[in-house]
Input
Amino acid sequence: MSVHKTQGPLQQLFYCTQLHQIKK
Output
């Protein structure tokens, strides 16, 4: 249950990182 709540922000952070890498 706690993992599900953490998956939200975690996935967003991963997406932000991927976008940052692509921009770089």
User: Anything to note?
Assistant: The CA atoms of residues 7 and 13 lie 10 Å apart. The radius of gyration is 11 Å. The mean pLDDT is 77. Residues 2-23 form the longest helix (22 residues).
